[in-house]
Amino acid sequence: MDLYCVMGNPVEHSRSPWIHARFAELTGQTLHYGRRRIELDGFADGIAAFRADPAGMARGCNITVPFKFDAGAVAQHLSPRAALAKAVNTLTFRADGVHGDNTDGVGLVNDIQQNAQLTIGGRDVLLIGAGGAAAGVLGPLLAAGARRVVVANRTLGKAVALVQRHAPVALAHGAQLEARALDAVPGRFDIVVNATASSLSGGSVPVDAGVLQPGALAIDMMYGPAAAGFMDWARAHGAVPRDGLGMLVEQAAGAFALWRGVRPPAAQVLDELRAQLGG
Ligand code: ATR
Asked: What is the pTM of this model?
């Protein structure tokens, strides 16, 4: 049996095992996808233990918080998008070594364009945050043709570094790209993406509602209670709120396609997951 898993800490509530089991069922693939909680200082040991599992042949894994940086370090081969993001959410074990990739950004882009049906081309995008979650999506947002992307972060220096690293991508796609402090975001945006952890610590939305174009799409990368504050704020200010469930399913679809060479029906699985979660 081909084995896959999601590794993280915490990982108990991850929906990934259910999503991948459903993908496998719908595409007729035979595999097992589990979850592994890894000690905070034990990422390399966690990978080794998974690869030694006698239950089958470990083929790859998804990586979630807080190991997306560690995962880059164990990979012998990095895709260009993972190298740019400096974060890895998908590892594939091949004969020539461990391959690291990042499907988070394409997951967000697919969720916006296919599930929310909003073309990113020509739009103004505000990306709030400059940590691993934001880093994973900036390149794909630029590649999708955004007209202008502003990265706003509490620590301005981190936004500046992220923007500098992506300057060649912005240039290649003819996009304007700038870094700002949270209280100095200029103008209004068609798409606002919350990639901060502020809601987890009970904090309020870290930018002024003036950033929202009327009818803007406002996406939190989290889902469930962690996304509620941002979504309420967006709704109250005339924007269309969206949680991160679609991005979760789409990034999983990207990983599944890399591993199995077949594209699963992500929109169907997203509908099923929403029905299951009652929303
Ligand atoms: P992740 O991998 O989830 O992105 P991270 O790398 O720790 O996690 O990044 C967390 C992001 O949330 C950062 O952009 C962080 O801002 P700083 O770079 O200034 O630390 C942001 N963040 C966390 N708590 C926040 C809060 N209360 N208000 C605003 N931004 C916050």
From this structure: 0.96
Among residues 20, 35, 59, 68, the one annotated as catalytic is 68
pLDDT at 175 over 90: yes
Q: Which residue ranges make up each domain of the chain?
A: 2-102+249-277, 105-243
Q: CB–CB of 22/50 below 8 Å?
A: no
Report the residue among 196, 222, 233 best suited for mutation to probe ligand 1: largest number of ligand atoms under 8 A from its CB.
196
Residue 202 clears pLDDT 80, i.e. is over it: no
How big is the chain by its Cα radius of gyration, in Å?
Answer: 18
Greatest pairwise CA separation for the chain in angstroms:
56
* pLDDT tens figures, 117-171: 999 999 999 999 999 999 999 999 999 999 999 999 999 999 999 999 999 999 9
- The token duo for 217 is 């799409």
> Does the annotation mark 68 as catalytic?
yes
User: What pLDDT score does 279 carry?
Assistant: 64
Query: Residue 209 in contact with residue 229, Cβ under 8 Å?
Result: no
Closest residue by CA, ligand 1 atom 5? 131
Ligand 1 site: residues with CB under 6 angstroms?
Answer: 65, 129-134, 153-155, 158, 195-198, 201, 203, 206
Provide the pLDDT for residue 198: 74
Ligand 1 nearest-atom number relative to CA 65: 2
Q: Matching CATH topology for 2-102+249-277 and 105-243?
A: yes
* Nearby residues of 265 by Cβ (< 8 Å), 6 or more positions away: 26, 27
Q: Is the CATH number 3.40.50.10860 carried by domain 2-102+249-277?
A: yes
pLDDT at 36: 98
What's the CATH number for 105-243? 3.40.50.720
